[in-house]
Queue: 4 jobs
Job 1
Amino acid sequence: MEEMTSDLFTRYFPNRCGFGKGQIQDSFGSESKEVDIIVFDRDSIPPVCHGIKNRNEKRVEGFFPVESLWYAIEVKKSLNNNELRDAVENMESVKNLRSHIKNPVRMLFAYSSNLIDSDMNIKKEFERYKKADSGWNKNPAIQVICIIGKGYLFVQFAKRNRDNKRVLLWKYIKDQTNYLEVACCLAGMINTITGQVFDPYLFDESTIQILEEIEL
C-alpha cells in the first residue's frame, strides 16, 4: 500500500520532492518510530540514508533529518481501532522530535474504514480519532486525515475574528463524487510544499466546514 500511495503522490508533486520510508531523527539524538511514507525536500537538507532503494528505485529507505521533511504519512489499507491507535502512536513519536526550522505535517491516509457508511461518516471517524488521541484538542498527533470514500479532515490554528483569541479548528470535506476528497488532500499537500494555493481550482470554499472549534 505504501508503494502504491507513493506512486500516486509522485505523479502530482514537483521534482524537488523525494519519497522514502524509515525513521526520522532530530539533532538532539531522538528518533521516530518507522514511518510508512516520508516526503522530503531534495533541495534542502539531504537525507542521511542507508542508500537502500526499493526495486523500482522511487523510494529511499533509511534515516532522515527532521528539518528536511514536509510530510510524515501513515498508510492504512483499512482503518480500524487498532490501526488508528498504531498510527497515533507512530505520529506521536514524530511530533515529539525537535526541529530547528519546521516540523513535518503528520498525516493518516486510509483506503477504507470498518465504520458503517452513513451521511455522517467523516464525523464518526473524527469521534473515533478523539478517543485515540488525548491531544486532539491541543496538539494533535495527526494533523491531516484522508479516508477514501469518507472524507478529508485537517487541523488549522487561527485567531478568532470577534475577540482575537487563538483557536484550534478541525475542518473537513466530506466524501464527494469522483473522490474529490483525495484531490483536495493532494491540493493541500501541494499548497504546503510549493506555497501556492490550488484549492480554488478544485472546489468552492464553502465545501470546507468547521467540525470543531477549541479555544486555546
Job 2
Amino acid sequence: MRRAIRAVSTSSTCNPPSAVEMARLSPFPVLCTLHHDHEPELSDLYRRTPEVRLVAISRSQARRETAPIAAVVHHGLDPARYQPMEDQGYLLFLGRYDRVKGVAQAIEVAARAKLPLVMAGEPHEREYYDSEVRPLIEKHRVLEVGPVGGNRKAALMARARALLFPIQWEEPFGLVMIEAMLSGVPALGAARGAVPEIVEDGITCTCGASRSSTNTSSSG
C-alpha cells in the first residue's frame, strides 16, 4: 500500500498549521493548494516546511508567492452542469459588492455600453457601497437581485449578454469567468491577477483596451 501512495493532498483551502502538522506526521509529501493571496507569515512557514508542496491555482498567484511552488493547476468545472440559453440583453456582475471587485467600474461599463446591468451579490463594505455604489445604482439601469446560487445562478449567467469582472486587485483566479465561458457567455475582465490566463488573447478571446486604461477581454 505504501508504494502506491505518492503524496497526501489537502482538498480544501490550505490551512497552514494543519498542513504542517500533517507533513510532520506523514511519511509522504503533503500537497497543499493555495486559495488565498500571498501572506508573508504563511510563506515563511511554508519555506521552513519543505515537506509541504504548494500548488498554486494560477501563474499569477505563483509569481507573487515567495515560498516554492511545486505546480500550477487551474480550477476546473464539470461542463455538463452548464448550458447556453437565450441572450436577454443584460450585463451581469456576480460577486461581493466591495472595492476590489470593481462594482463601481462594472456599473460604469454598463452605462457606457447603454445596457442594463444585473448585480447578484450583497454589500461587503457598507461604507463603500453607500458612498460610491448606491449613487451609481440610482443613476443608471441597475437591478440588484441579491445573492444567488444553484439553478438560479446558472440561468442568470447563461442569459446574460456578458459577465463583467473588472477586478481592482490581483485575484488568484476567478471561477465565475469559466462558469460564464461554459455557459456560452463572454467574460469581460480587467487584465489583473489570473484574468489574462483565463481570458487569453487569440485563444479564448480577442482582447482590447477600454477607455479606463484597463484591458477588457472577452471570450465566446
Job 3
Amino acid sequence: ADSLITESEWLIDRSSGNDETYRFMLINLINRFAHGVTDAEERAYAHLGLEYYTDTLKTPWINMEERLNIVARAQIIDSLQTLKSLDQ
C-alpha cells in the first residue's frame, strides 16, 4: 500500500505544473483504485480520497455529490483498514 501511495503522490506531484495533467492524473488514479481488489489498492483509494477530494481547492472540478461519495467511501475504507490493523 505504501508503495502505491508513494508512487501516486510522485505522479501527482510531477503533474501539478499543468492543471489539465493534474486533473487527469487525479481522476485516473482515483478511478483506478476505486475498483481495487487488494488492501493496498483500497488504502491508496482512501488516501487519495481523503487527501485530495476533501479539499475543494485541490479538486475544484468535481461536483459536490461526487465529492461526498468519494470522501464517504474513503472514510469507510480508512476505518475498516484501521480495524483490520487492530485485529492483527
Job 4
Amino acid sequence: MRPLSGKIVILTQPLADDDSLSSHLEQVGAEIIRYPLIEIMPTRESPEKHSVFSQIASYTYIIFTSKNGVSYFFEYAAGSNTRKDIREEVRYAAIGNKTAAELQKYGIQASYVSRGNTSEDFVQELLQQNITGQEILLPLGTLAPDTLEQSLSSYNVVTRLNVYETRYVSIIPPEIIARIEGNRYDLIIFTSPSAIESFMHFMQQAGIRGDFRMACIGKTTARKATEMGIQPLLVSSKPDGAVFAKEIYSYLSTL
C-alpha cells in the first residue's frame, strides 16, 4: 500500500497550470479531486494594448511577475507581429525561477531573477539594483497589486499593461459541495488568493461554514485565507509544486 492511500486531496488550481503538485501526490497514493475555482485568459483587445505594443521598442526593461504574464505577453506579441520590434538590448526581470523558466521557453534569459516570492520582495531587490531612468513595462494580470508600479515610478517611467485576467468559475459541481459539507476530504489545496476568494464565495452561497482544512502555497495566498477568517493548516515554505508536495506528504502522513 502506498503511504497516502485513502487520503483525499481537493486541488483548486486551473487545469492549465503546472501539474507537478498533483502528480507527486498521486505517486504516493493520494486521491486527487480536481476542482478548478478560477479561469485564466488573455485580456481583450483594447486601444491601450494596441498602443503599448505599437511602441514596444521604447521599453528598456520588461518585468514579469508570473508565468501567465510571460505567456500571454508573448502570445499577443506573436499575434500582433510586434516581437521583432522589441529592442535587442532590452533587459528582462522575473519573480522566481518558474517565471524565469517560462521566459527561457521563448529563448530569453532573464537579466535578473528575484530571490523572493512576492512583489514586496521583488521591489526591494530591484531598488537595490539601482534601476533608474528606465522605460519599464509591467505585463500583469488584472488582479495584480500595484506594488511594483508605485515603487518603481519614482525613478522611472513605468507602464502597466494587463495581459491576462482571472475569472471565477460560474458554478461548483454539487458533488464537490456535498463532499465538503460532509467532511469527506483531508485537505483542500489553494495556489492563489483569487482561488480562496472564489471558494469562500461558493461556500457562503451554499451556506457552509466551518474550519475548512486548507493548505496554501506561499505567504500571499495564506494571507488571503487569514483575511477571510480561515487559518491554513499548512503553508508551503517555497512556492514550488515539488517542495509543497513533500510538505503535504509529511503533514498527511501524521493524520
